[in-house]
Amino acid sequence: MQTNLPKFLPLVGVVHLGPLPGSPRWSGLMEEVVRAAVADAVAYEKGGAHGVIVENFGDVPFTRDRVPAETVAAMAVAGRAVRDAVSLPVGFNVLRNDPLSALALCAACDGDFVRVNVHSGAMLTDQGLIEGDAFATARKRRELGLGHVKILADVLVKHAVPLGNLALADAARDTVERGLADALIVSGVGTGHPTAATDVARVREACPGAVILIGSGVAPGNIEDYLPYADGFIVGSSLKRGGRLDQPVEVRRVRRLAGCMQRQPRPG
Question: How many domains does the chain have?
Answer without folding.
Answer: 1
